[in-house]
Amino acid sequence: MIATYFNALMIIVGSLLGLLLKNKLKASYQEVVFTSSGLVTLVIGISMAMQTGSYLILLFSVVLGGFIGYALRIEDGVLALGTWMERRLSRGRGNAESGRNFALGFLNASLLFCSGAMTVVGSIQAGTVGDYQLILVKSIMDGCMAIIFSAVYGPGVLASALFVLLYQGFFTLAGGAIAPVLGDAGINELAAVGGVLLMMIGFGLLDIRKSKTGNFLPAMIVAPLLALASPMFKSFVQGIGF
Length: 242
Hints:
Layout: H1 2-24, H2 27-49, H3 55-72, H4 74-89, H5 96-114, H6 117-128, H7 133-153, H8 156-205, H9 219-239
Protein name: Transport protein
Keywords: Membrane, Transmembrane, Transmembrane helix
Pfam families: DUF554
């Protein structure tokens, strides 16, 4: 868990630096931050999405996950939670807009820090063989991105450090049992769907298209399941003569 603690610490440090930067940025320069972070997020998302072994699995994962998320209204729940957290932290002085920004910062930063294959593979390596190198590299990258994201979204990015602790901690502690089940295919499909979600965030930062990214979170569960079922489906098709 040492590497996971370090990762969370780097996010906190980066977020604090970003908040200082945001307070000193002129309004004219904030557009530079939004455009730069949007473009970089798109590049990261595209590179992750290309890891998929099957574009059909990627497509069905996003569609099915989106159906589930919209039915459950996941993003509405996250935004409501963010508004509640922001009001508690500000002792009732917050408003709906600041609560929404807090929630979006928490949601988008959590996706950025936890959706890649580096998170799963690095955490499993740390928990099973004590190899911290991948997570340490990821920690530095996350700290740098936390500076940019907190300058865009504000203090909600700080809260993502807690989610990183829980998410990476889970894979670190349970990695020995999870790794054989997910396999390389499952991890790659999970990362690919995470890339698609990051692309949604990037398009939103660039004001190209706003999407309720939180509603697509179930796709990250659907993707590994479809990857596991894919060999069985292929065997079934071959068995009936197609």
